[in-house]
Amino acid sequence: MRLSGMVMRFAVSAAAFATGPTLAVSPHTPGPAEAAEARRLPDLDAQLVAGSAQLEGADDLLIVDPEVAPTSGHCLTWRCCPPGADPAGAGYPTVTVNGFFHADAIFFAQDAANAAVVGDAQDVADFRRARLSAKGEVAENVSYFMEYDFAFPGRPSFMDVYVDVADLASIGNVRIGQFRTPFGMDAMTSVKELTFLERALPTAFAPFRQIGIELYDTALDERATWAVAGYRFPTNVFGNASGDSGYGCATRETLLLYDGPCNHTLHLGGGFTYNQPSGNSAILRSTPEVGFSQLDFNSTVFPVPFFVDTGTLAAENFQVMNVELAGSRGPAVAQAEFYFATIDQLNGTQARFHGAYAQVSYVLTGEYRPYLKNQGVYGRFTPHTNYGKAGIGGWEIAGRYSYLDLNDADLAPVGAPPGFAAGGALQDLTFGLNWRLNANTEFQFNYIHAFLDRPAGDNSDADILAARAQVDF
Predict the structure, then answer these.
(1) Which of 51, 100, 328, 359 has the fewest CB atoms within 10 Å, counting from its CB?
(2) What is the CATH number of the domain that holds 443?
């Protein structure tokens, strides 16, 4: 009825326009039909006004011509959106290219007993890391990160390669790909922000990078973080894992107990990881905080000898728990962790290990390492003035004690050579001096004194001098 009224009203209007002044040349007396039509015109006008009001309040009834539909913004219905429309707006995807390198020089001085146990540790000059990465967003809530290392054994090796989906179903953020598993404060600190050249000895227990899926988020106004991940275990340097076995999980939770002015913080955290290694074999070993030090299940040959080594164990599972305590006060930071690990061997015995570290640092030039709430770690300090005509840059001193005890009477390594002394306990005293020339350039100097106690061998010592040049962009 409304549409027929509209059509009639438009027809009458058109007729009136068509018979306008140019055609009205003589007076005319309306007939009965024309008088009736004239009486109907006010009713049609009222119906048109009422129909317009209803259409204004019913967006879902509008059908927009695709030729003139908007290419961004809110589409009223699926029928309104032409091919290629971007309801989220323009500007995606985005990309930022980053990179950094670590150029290291390492010098060893061993006593005779140490050289007899671990072999001749020769001086090394190499690129510890040389990485290129790309990161960005493909939508408002989907980001990506891809990083590859050209100094690791794979040349290049897969580092962090993942996609993040933010606020999925309002329960947290989801990460899929290869990433650092959420376990340990030292392990979760970026290598570009480490206080020393390498992480502390107990990070040999961390499962580190694996391929899988992670759910993580912050809570309590970013005073707390939580993360849980499931993954294939172990993942090789190319981001691959295969086989009917080989799975693991890890979780880490942190709480910022105090967050005061002038970088006054107090941090508490903890984590747990459970792993069933593919092929039922596991190795725990470490160098004295130079070269490669994280847990290795892939039998990769490294240039620095391992001072402690369990050998290849026939393992049903491998699990570790840890606790974290850290705090800062202005330019001073203190951080400590304790780890306890077990390996259930297929011969029915359980091997138990433990390790810990404590470290302190102080920025002599007054800058401080900020606490990164969304990660539950401390970041890098940035000099107030760059080195050059403006100033001397930023200077930091640091000290650390760490130990890793892999001694256990029930170790049963598979295929160990004759005379192999499985396990060992290693203690390191490390002193560091860091010179940050500007926000992106740093020189680090470490002196390490290592105390080694290997079963069936004498206690031995080694002194190590190490230096690093780091540039990142």
Answers:
(1) 51
(2) 2.40.160.10
Q: Cα separation of 87 and 94, whole Å?
A: 17
Is the separation of the CB atoms in 286 and 403 below 8 Å?
Answer: no
Whether 176 is in a domain gets the answer: no
Taking the chain, what is the end-to-end CA distance rounded to the nearest angstrom? 70
Backbone dihedral region for residue 73 (phi beyond 0: left; psi -120 to 50: alpha; all else: beta) = left
Element (H, E) at 38: helix 32-56
Pairing status of strand 281-282 against strand 224-232: unpaired
Nearest partner of 291 among 179, 153, 190, judged by Cα: 153
Residue 428 lies in a domain: yes
- For residues 357 and 449, give the distance between their C-alpha atoms in angstroms, rounded to a whole number: 15
Whether 377 and 311 share a structural domain: yes
Phi, psi of 205, rounded to the nearest 5 degrees: -80, -20
Angle at 107 between CA 101 and CA 109, to 5 degrees: 155
Residue 61: phi and psi, rounded to 5, are -90, -10
DSSP secondary structure string, 381-438?
---SS-SBTTB--EEEEEEEEEEEE---TT--BTTPPTT---B-EEEEEEEEEEEEEE
- How far is residue 366's CA from residue 364's CA, in Å, rounded to a whole number? 6
Residues 47 and 116 occupy one common structural domain: no
pLDDT at 38 over 60: no
Contact between residue 94 and residue 143 where contact means Cβ atoms under 8 Å apart:
no
267 and 382 share a domain? yes
Residues 7 and 120 in one domain: no
114 lies in the same domain as 28 = no
Q: Residue 162: phi, psi to the nearest 5?
A: -155, 165
Task: Please provide residue 9's backbone torsions phi and psi, each rounded to the nearest 5 degrees.
Answer: -65, -40
H or E stretch covering 468: strand 460-472
For residue 161, is pLDDT > 80? yes
In terms of residue numbers, what domain contains 329? 102-125+190-472
Number of domains into which the chain is organized: 2
This prediction has a pTM of 0.81
